[in-house]
User: What shape does this take?
Amino acid sequence: MFKFMMGCLTCAVVAQGAGAQGPGESGGQKISRAGSATASPGPAAYFTGEVRVEPVFPVTSSINASGGLVTFQPGARSAWHTHPAGQHLVVTAGVGLTQEWGKAVQEVRAGDVVWCPPGVKHWHGASPGTGMSHLAITGSVEGRNVDWLEKVTDEQYASR
Ligand code: MN
Assistant: This one.
C-alpha cells in the first residue's frame, strides 16, 4: 500500500474518498458534487512550483483509469516521469508546456488533448507566464500509474 500511494499522482486521495466501491459499482448512478473533492498540493518531491491536485474519479473494477484535475501556477511543472499504462491529458484552462524526452518543448492550450504513451518519459506543466489546468486520465498497472524520475531543471524548462 505504501508503494501504491507513493507512486500514484492522484489515486491516494481518490482512494480515500471512494470507499470500497467506485461509481456505478453499487448498482446505481453516482453523482459527485462539484467542490466536494478534497484537493491536495502536488508533493515537492515530484513537482516544481505551486501545483494543486483534485481527485475527479477513481479506478474501478470496470475502468482501470483514474482522473485528476491538476492546476499548475505559472512556472510550475511535474518532474520527468513515465506511466506504465499511458495517460490522456485534456487541457481545461490556460497555457501549458509539455515535453517528451529528446524532443522539443511544446505549448498546449485549453481544449488541446495530449496522449502520453506507456513508458515514454515526459513532463507537463504551466507556461512561464500563464497557469494551466488539465484533466489527467491515467491508466494503472497493478495499482501503479506513474514512475517518477528527476526534476525538470530551469534550463530544460526554458529550452524552447
Ligand atoms: Mn504524465
Notes: The chain is about 10% helix and 40% strand. Residues 1-20 have pLDDT under 50 and may be disordered. The CA atoms of residues 105 and 150 lie 17 Å apart.
